[in-house]
Amino acid sequence: MTVYIALLRGINVGGNRKVPMPALKSMFESLGFQGVLTYINSGNVIFESDSDDGGEALEERIEREIEKVFGFPVDVMIRTAAELRGAIDANPFAAEGSPEELHLHVGFMKKAGLAADKLAKLDARVNENEGYRLSNREVFAAFRAGLRDSKLAEQLGKLGVPLTLRNWNTTTKLAELAEAKLP
């Protein structure tokens, strides 16, 4: 059995694209996944599967079912418990301050890499209060002055690739919950 974390993009934000967590949990269970657990209302689902499908196939399967059940498309990014722990351990901002001081967030992308023009747009937003580092399928972003008026955060939403952002506390809590399911 493999433990996975599904990160849904853009649900339950500002009263739009509402997905009740009990209904989402039931939907995952109807797909045959086991040990399904949701965490907070932003679309984080921890589940177990013995499927031979890889993360990309699981993403597509879950996305199809969400659209069927809830009536709108949602991008889903999948990580195994080991992949999520690896991302956390690879935090490229670790030497620059605590996650709290940095207001550290992690952007989870479907695929690794960004086009040069997209990286240039991110680079143009880097300043003494905001920065990012690309690591595999994650974009780590520090918002020292907060996320609210961030030009970098605004640009992260315009990369042209499916990406969902989670703060550091949520990211580490998801890893903790997923690892608790490991044998």
In short:
This protein has 183 residues and is α+β, with helices and mostly antiparallel strands.
Report on this model:
The protein contains seven helices and eight strands; from the N terminus they run E-H-E-E-H-E-H-H-E-H-E-E-H-E-H. The protein is globular. It has helices at 21-30, 55-70, 81-89, 99-102, 116-123, 151-156, 168-179, and strands spanning 2-8, 34-39, 44-49, 76-80, 104-109, 130-135, 138-143, 163-167. It has a four-stranded antiparallel beta sheet, sandwiched between helices. Strands 6-7-5-8 form a four-stranded antiparallel beta sheet. The protein is α+β, with helices and mostly antiparallel strands. Strand 6 and strand 7 (138-143) form a beta hairpin. It has two domains: 2-84, Alpha-Beta Plaits (2-Layer Sandwich), CATH 3.30.70.1280; 86-167, 2-Layer Sandwich (Alpha-Beta Plaits), CATH 3.30.70.
